[in-house]
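agent> Task received from the user: take the single chain below, predict its 3D structure, and emit structure tokens. No templates, no multimer pairing.
agent> Plan: (1) validate residues, (2) run structure prediction, (3) serialize to tokens, (4) report one or two observations.
agent> Step 1 OK, no nonstandard residues flagged.
tool_call: predict_structure(input=
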Amino acid sequence: MTSLTRFKRNAAVATLASLSMGLAVSCTPSSPDVATSPAAGGDAASPAAGSGGTVTLSGAGASFPAPLYQRWFADYNKQNPNTQISYQSVGSGAGVEQFQAGTVDFGASDAPLKAADKETFKAKYGAEPIQVPMTGGSVVFAYNLDGVDELKLSRDAYCGIVEGKITTWNDPAIAAANSGATLPSSPINFVHRSDGSGTTYAFTNHLKAACPGWTAGVNKSVEWPVGTGAKGNEGVTAQIQQTPGAIGYTEFSYAKENGLTMAAIENASGKIIAPTPEAGAAAFEGETVPADFALQVPDSKNPEAYPISTLTWLLLYPEYKDAAKRDALNSVITWSLTDGKAAANDLGYIPVDTALATKVKDQVATIK
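)
tool_result: status=success, residues=368
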């Protein structure tokens, strides 16, 4: 375990702060007999980008960070035209499946790998997978309610909505925190994910901690007691936009970029907190990051924290057949964690701070 790791906050920027510099963080076993991933380049090696050849990288997984990854990869390609990176926003569940199958060069997930996932991977490849955090972000309640520009939801209110117990907008549990607002008697249309989703994992992880009546468990896909399903954060956002009276959970940047209004919600300290990168970063203050970087904070006790916040991880192989792909991935990750911070801030994500980025880069450097 590392020493206390914090997200630093100020008025302009929220960042994930340092890990202990004294502990070597490694997800790769010491044995040199590491199985080679079939994902990275097949039998023919890619020419090194510096030699004038083109290196292609393919990834798939979480839709949560997709706007940032696509921005990063496009910006990196402009500066390094010999490296071409494609990323499919297919959801964390499908991303982990493709990563395990070796059909992509990297995966992406908003849920840390389970012990069973690691064992399956190790049985196939001879070593544990590598997961590294690339950014943080918040899961928000975005809504479409005409005439209601600000919405506050107590725990009783949002738990009741997702549990199917609160079904109209003028329910007393909602009205109690929104004095002065004209809440209609129309039905609430809850929108949730229909695919295997790390966003769903983070959301249900919070519901389990915050909602005593939540019985559907914590997973990338659950049996929802109520609502309409949509694929990806993209699909949820679109469904909310086109459905009057809708409310659903999505990643902050999707709501921001699509002009959706987001509810302020009650945190564990009883404070109503609006979702902002600074409030999301506060959820991680004082938390200890494990050696595999799989930090989860389902319900922060920080009174200033927005309570539904998560890291999101890249999934990497411990060895690549193609050295050009390995080196390109190393370069892309290093660039994203340094030069890519401005894009993360611009889109509303929480960029990784320099000290933690160093630990991530050290981990990536162990890849063979």
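agent> Step 4: summary for the user.
The chain has two domains: 4-136+310-364, 138-282.
agent> Done.
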